[in-house]
Amino acid sequence: MSKQLAIQLAGVSKAYPHFRLDSIDLQLEQGSIMGFIGPNGAGKSSTLRILMGLIRADQGEVRVLGHRVPDEQVAARWDIGFASEDMRLYQSRTLQWHMDFVKSIYPGWDDDYAAALARRFDTRPGQTLKGFSHGQRVKAGLLLVLARRPKLLLLDEPTTGLDPVARKEVLNELMDVLQDDGRSVLFSSHNTKDVEQVSDQITFIDRGRVIASQDKETFLERWRRVRFSAAENFAMPDLPDVVETRLNGRLGSVITGRFDTRITDGLQNAGATIQGVETMTLEEIFVTEVEASRAEVTGAAA
Amino acid sequence: MTSITWQLIRKDWDISRLPMFGYAALAVVALVLVAMATGATFYVGSTMLITVVVVIGIHLIFVSVVHERGKQTLPFIMSLPISFMQYTRAKMLANLGIFGIAWLLIAAAVIAIFSSTATLPNGMLPFSLIILGELFVANILILGVAMVTESEAWTIVVMAFCNLCISLFIYFVGSIPEINAHMQGPVAVWNSTAMMLIGLEILAACVLIALIFVAQARKHDYL
After folding, report:
1. Which helix H or strand E contains B1, and what residues bound it?
2. Per-residue pLDDT at A181
3. Helix (H, G, I), strand (E, B) or coil at A22
């Protein structure tokens, strides 16, 4: 039986004067973590804000935890923990003041977990936010989100600007949160390494369009860079599913998002010698996808 | 009123509480100066009182509305399970509630001082309450501009305009013969002109509040 969906976006569009979120389709099963990767200005924050009901899509259907958004956004938000990079807390108030405020709203607030998180994150509840470093402020924001035990976490660039230690603490905490099978996370970032560590699904977005969405293992499994050497007058054969081809003198490489032996066989049949078949990092896959998508859009426009 | 609306009002009160006590102390000083009823103290006290009323309103608007957007605490508040209209209601109730209580206390103190101080003419009472009423309406206008335009610049422009209008309004009301004729008299005269001006202020306040809710209800994007 298929799992229930925590998030469902179907044909969602939103136009701004200089940017358009274009027919976004996205699904996240309950209990999954999706890394939402895109360059700055790709549409990650707009998508998350649409999911929260903070901005209204011009077209398309949005469902979060079974609730239609924006019509049922309040009901949905009871079970959503939202933290964004541009979210700030009240500088003149202490973390404890914020904890008391959030606790007064959420009946499910977990005092013990909040205290444990404050210790783990090295944040002092009695200190005003004014005295917090950037990393401590981010962790304080996450504490306020996690201690209410939401079913869905929407995290917009939560690790941006964090030092390596703080980033590790935040990512470790996210991994712990996901011990609970019922909890889902949509985690946007332009840092592929962070996303790769915690996610089991990956979606790439660029210039307002979802350009790829798959589970992480499939991404890493399918993408390969094939390095080869060939004669000076080597004629590149027609190969299936090749996204990028480079030929520099006698050395060349092809990148494919659907690797199988037809690629290596094709190259060898054309006279090339295979030097190696390499796996690719998520960052390399992301950059290649973005470049290919942009080339496709430019080609179509021309 | 839902529990979450109440929590938001409490939050705004909590953040503004300390400065409000400071303004209350200044208001007491101003009222004492008014009650001393010499020419100079009355002038200084009444000017100070008007300033305190204006500053209370502006402080609340800036801390609870303008800074919430400018200092990016709005995403934190809007991540809570509230609709934008609940948020609007909470802001209106917090601002008008806190300002309204301060305004009522000051108005009551003004009435008490005029009634109990022999050297102050009771005939000034209608004029004084009409001026206080204008301050209340101006406060709603500034609050509305802050909420609807979401712009610090526009809020400052309208605030400056409203402050400029205070002295013009004082001059205008003081020049109306039906008001002016009784200002130095021993009895407060609530004639039809005074009642009409107060009625217009109440109407303006109601219309402004309704317009704020209508404008907020038409918004689709909140961040």
Report:
1. none
2. 65
3. strand
Residue located via tokens 């915690």:
A198
CA angle B168, B170, B172 (to 5 degrees): 65
Q: Give the integer Cα–Cα distance in Å for A85 and B72.
A: 10
Q: In angstroms, rounded to a whole number, what is the distance separating the alpha carbons of residues A183 and A146?
A: 11
Q: Do B81 and A101 touch (CB under 8 A)?
A: no
Choose the closest CB to A54 out of B72, B78, B86: B78
Cβ atoms of A85 and A158 within 8 Å: the answer is yes
- Assigned token pair, A92: 């003149």
Q: Which chain B residues are Cβ-neighbours of A49 within 8 angstroms?
A: 223
Residues above pLDDT 90, as percent of chain A: 63
Q: Tell me, what's the ipTM?
A: 0.89
What lies within 8 Å, CB to CB, of A161 at 6+ separation is A85, A134, A135, A138
DSSP string, A224-255: EEEEEE--TTPPPP--TTEEEEEEETTEEEEE
Phi, psi dihedral angles at A26 (to 5 degrees): -155, 135
Residues of B13-43 as b/e, b for ≥16 C-beta within 10 angstroms? eebbeeebeebeeebeebbebbbbbeeeebe
d(CA B45, CA B121): 16
Sheet of A67-68, strand order: A19-29, A5-16, A59-64, A67-68
Closest CA to A267 of A248, A252, A286, A284: A252
- What Rg do the C-alpha atoms of chain B give, in angstroms? 19
pLDDT band at A2 (very low <50, low <70, confident <90, very high): low
- Nearest residue in A to B10, CA atom: A101
Q: What pLDDT is stored for residue A301 in this prediction?
A: 66
Give pLDDT, residue A198: 85
> Is the CB of B72 less than 8 angstroms away from the CB of A87?
yes
Task: Give the residue from A105, A114, A165 showing the smallest Cα distance to A135.
Answer: A165
Q: Does the pLDDT of residue B2 top 80, yes or no? A: no
Decide if A86 touches B, using CB distance below 8 A: yes
- Inter-residue contact A211 to A61 (CB < 8 Å): no
Tell me the torsion sign for CA atoms B32, B36, B37, B40: negative
Q: Tell me what pLDDT residue A95 has.
A: 97
Q: pLDDT by residue (tens digit) across A107-140?
A: 999 999 999 999 988 899 999 999 998 889 999 9
Q: Which residue of A has its CA nearest to B18?
A: A92
